[in-house]
Amino acid sequence: MRVRLPHQLDRAEVRRRLDERKGEIVTYFPEGMATLESGWQGEDHLDFTVAVAGQRIGGAIDIGDDHVEIEIDLPFILSFLRPTIERSMRKEGTRLLT
């Protein structure tokens, strides 16, 4: 699953905001279901793993000049959460970037 969000910030500001609030990624999942591990792989690429319902879900956030792209490798067993997660990613990601 991939979501692309536009922004009008410089990359450093996007990095700062993501670094400050990356823990909120778990809010894309139903409350209390997820934990997060994350790490920057270069200046503009954040890898993360969310543990939810006994599953480990990998993902990444890439920062572009005018957009942020969030990718989550949602396993089939959790595919029923896709609409909820995508809606949260768009809402919260847009809030973070505006």
What does this structure look like?
The protein is of the alpha+beta class. It has one domain (2-97): Alpha-D-Glucose-1,6-Bisphosphate, Chain A, domain 4. It has two helices and five strands, in the order E-H-E-E-E-E-H. The protein has helices at 11-21, 82-97, and strands at residues 2-6, 34-40, 45-52, 55-63, 67-72. It has a five-stranded antiparallel sheet with strand order 1-5-4-3-2.
Short description:
This protein has 98 residues and is an alpha+beta fold. Helices cover 28% and strands 36% of the residues.
What structural keywords apply?
single chain, 98 residues, alpha+beta, Alpha-D-Glucose-1,6-Bisphosphate, Chain A, domain 4, 36% strand
Set down the secondary structure blueprint.
Layout (H helix, E strand, L loop, with lengths): L1 E5 L4 H11 L12 E7 L4 E8 L2 E9 L3 E6 L9 H16 L1
Antiparallel strand pairs: 1-5, 2-3, 3-4, 4-5
